[in-house]
Amino acid sequence: MHELKKADRITQGYEYRRVYQHGRAVIANRLVLYVLPRQGEPTRVGFVTGKKVGNAVARNRARRLLREAYRLHRPQLKPGYHLVLVGRKRLAQASYAEAERDLLYVLRRAKLLQC
Fold it and tell me: What span, in angstroms and rounded, lies between the C-alpha atoms of 97 and 9?
């Protein structure tokens, strides 16, 4: 249905670096969104959690929360952007509802939602 295929994700290190260096950041309590406009390209996303988030189990859980919240709201996004979602330490203990709330907050602040 709303599958997140490899073509929809940022996979290369140089692509992450480009978004970090040339994009702008929108900050929430539990995550940071980096946005880089890419006209003529589909919206692509990358998910990152650093070691400060916790052990591998906590980092994977945080990324799963971000992926699921993004996957469900992806049809509402404007096309033509590269996004990097960085989970912060608080995300590891967050519920799905809290993660979704923060994701929608940063997407609204970045003016990426169509409605």
Answer: 23
